[in-house]
Amino acid sequence: MTEDAIGGIDSNLRKGAPMRTHIAADPGNDGYAKPIPDILSIIKDSYGELRPAERRVADVVLADVTFAVDASNAEIARRAEASEPTVTRFCRAIGCNGVRDFKLKLAQSVVVGRLYLAPGEPSPPTTDGSPLWSTVFGEARNAISLVERSINPADIVRAADLVANAHQVVIFGLGGSSTALAHETQNRLFRYGVVATSHSDPYVLKMTAATLKPNDIVIAISGTGRTREVIEGVELAKHYRAKTIGITAPDTDLAAACDVKLTVDIPEYADPLKPTASRYAFLLIIDLLSTAVGYRLDPSARETLRRIKYTVLSHRKGRVLEPLGD
User: Fold this and answer.
1) What is the C-alpha to C-alpha distance for residues 108 and 225, in angstroms, rounded to an integer?
2) How far apart are CA 133 and CA 130, in angstroms?
């Protein structure tokens, strides 16, 4: 018998899934991982406070970050037309302990943001004035095609059966795209009469997971499959014997944690200014799942939809064949 993750003794009497705790690799005194400082932003925000010679060092660093990471103190000083002590003073002026500390933090910033530091190849001109017209449409078509080739219809049916027979469905999604997708999943399901709520606050997410019971369902959405709070929420829900459905990338921690995996791998275009194409794929999976749920609940789903449409048309004028509730 081992000590349970929530403070008791885990003797598997509950027959729920074990919960995993995540410990920061380098926690501070308060137990939380210290974030990597964004040294490039610090340089830009502090630029006006630097001395003229230190600004020349900043200009050299910002103009060629890769050079600054690999170059010696003397090489940076020579390119900036400054002395080596000036380079050291610059490093300390932006909050680093010295040149070594500065270069370590700069290298970490480059790893995270190299794609965003310099513009890519210019897009070919178009007659309509939109340089990424064909790219955006092409990425959307590609995402939809990948879903059609990747998703097993049997998995959609299995997930729909779980949702249709659930006491309640909670949808987890954190971050920009996943939060919106979680709200859309709730929007698609409640109109069939499914008791569905979405959560995007990490604390509320975990508290909600702790209230779930065997006849409840979690739908977890994550584009990367690595969002720690969502994974922990799924594991906590499974601990209390709720079933889980993952809409995410394949071969990820989230996919591994879920009972039903609705996964697709969407390669992203290298241009960071273009919105992510995985949204189209996940929206399509949500449509496939919700439509299958609607057919599972027919005719009660039709009656719920009729009530909604009747209420909407009584509230404002419109046509029958319009988006429901818009």
Assistant:
1) 23
2) 5
